[in-house]
Amino acid sequence: MSLFSKLNKNSAFAEVNTKDFTFVSPKDMYLEVGSEPFTINGVYLDKKSYKFGTQAVAILSDYNKLLNLPSYLVEDVQTILESQDMIDEIKAGKVKISLTQYTNDYSKQKDGSIKHFYSVTWVD
């Protein structure tokens, strides 16, 4: 590898056509599939979201969706993108994620309603 070739932006999952995909939140995906694991077809980091910083995204070809992952998964996705073995497992369709709904001390809102949060678990 030459000194500057590492700066070229190549997506590990560029072959997945996401042209007509729509973004979906963990909440909306949870309402659609519940906690049942579903296959991911790729991941990437979206560094263009200036309001929230770098965002992790999962490609869901079975649903034509791009799932906005929680911010705590940015490091996980970076680890995946640096591991050819992990990339190959995803490309082989062997990796799924599941969503879990939960509440915590910050769930109770001023109006008395309860806010739900969503976590992601990797399944292989």
Give the low-confidence spans.
none
The residue fraction in helices comes out at 10-25%
Number of strands: 7
Spatial ordering of strands, largest sheet? 1-5-4-3
- What is the overall pLDDT average? 88
Q: Please state the overall shape, judged from the principal axes of the Cα atoms.
A: globular
| Rg (CA only) | 16 Å
β-sheet strand percentage: 25-35%
Which structural category do the helix and sheet elements fall into?
alpha+beta
Distance N terminus to C terminus? Answer: 32 Å
Written account of the structure:
- This protein has 124 residues and is of the alpha+beta class.
- It is 19% helix and 27% strand.
- The strands form two sheets. It has a four-stranded mixed sheet with strand order 1-5-4-3. A three-stranded antiparallel sheet has the order 2-6-7.
- Strand 4 and strand 5 form a beta hairpin.
- The model has no long low-confidence stretch (mean pLDDT 88).
Concise synopsis of the structure shown:
This protein is α+β, with helices and mostly antiparallel strands.
Topology (SSEs and partners):
Elements: E1 22-24, H1 26-33, E2 38-39, E3 42-46, E4 55-60, E5 65-68, H2 74-81, H3 84-91, E6 96-102, E7 117-123
Parallel strand pairs: 1-5
Antiparallel strand pairs: 2-6, 3-4, 4-5, 6-7
Structural descriptors:
single chain; 124 residues; alpha+beta; four-stranded mixed β-sheet; three-stranded antiparallel β-sheet; 3 helices; 7 strands; 19% helix; 27% strand; globular
